[in-house]
Amino acid sequence: MERNKILKLFMFVSSALLPKRFLVSGFLPFHRSINRQFQLASSMSPVLLEPSQRDAKYGTNVARYLLDLHESEATFDFCGGMMFQLMLTDQLREHLTKVASQNEDGNETINHFQPKIFDATKARMFNLPDYDQSANADNINIFHGRELRKVPHAKGGFGFVLQLSMAMPDGADSRDPEGWSAQEMKTYDGWAHDIGRTWRKADDYEAEGFKDFKQKFGSEAFGLNHRFYLHLDGSHRMWLSAEDGCEGTPAKSTSRNPVSRIFGL
């Protein structure tokens, strides 16, 4: 009885206080699978979390850092407690592996393909040099990505995934099969409010070319595409930020029930 009361109270408070993006994008329904989801905690090494340890290990090799975050099934804390697991597409992983290896082979040539982490003065994407409202990305300064909801195996306990994919240059012969579709490119308006944007369901993704979307994320998953970039804050923590300003930093999730975490139970 007490558990049901807590859940009802949680739902009421969430409906009143949470930003509308969470009401529309599937945050509230996650309570139906709390008992199953809260066990999916990630295990992250301090070297992925603590700025001084991160810098000592990775230095300027941001590509290797992103790869290790993916391999560790790292979670990012968005909006004060919403845990998203970071996932890279196979093609982006292949690209970043080549970029990372150039640094590790002792090549003294400047690696122009390394992803860039901007300083703390670039707190929003529109602060970046040469920023424009477009669907363009270069896998260096800006990435293509998606926030995906209701993913049953996602670490962090919420069923949330942040997927980064490979952006291809104009005129390329091929594209990332897990990346943005032609329709996502054409309709992208990630600088606008989420409420007016196009959320895609699993059937939509597969119809637009992501053939094994349901196999990877489940038939109930749905999402929204964003452009992302990386920046530091005043404490030298790294943030993965969407064009609309929502952002998250690597953080260790726990095995506690998300409701318990929020209410301190």
Folded structure, characterized:
This protein is an alpha+beta fold and 265 residues long. It has one domain (46-250). It has eleven helices and nine strands. The chain has helices at residues 2-17, 20-24, 34-37, 46-49, 51-58, 62-71, 90-104, 182-187, 202-207, 213-217, 258-263, and strands spanning 75-78, 82-88, 117-118, 143-149, 160-165, 200-201, 222-232, 238-242, 247-250. The chain has a seven-stranded mixed barrel with strand order 1-2-5-4-7-8-9. β7 and β8 form a beta hairpin. α6 packs across α7 (90-104). The chain is globular, with a radius of gyration of 18 Å. It starts with a helix and ends with a helix. 37% of the residues are buried.
Provide a compact summary of the structure.
The protein has helices spanning 2-17, 20-24, 34-37, 46-49, 51-58, 62-71, 90-104, 182-187, 202-207, 213-217, 258-263; strands at residues 75-78, 82-88, 117-118, 143-149, 160-165, 200-201, 222-232, 238-242, 247-250. It is an alpha+beta fold and 265 residues long.
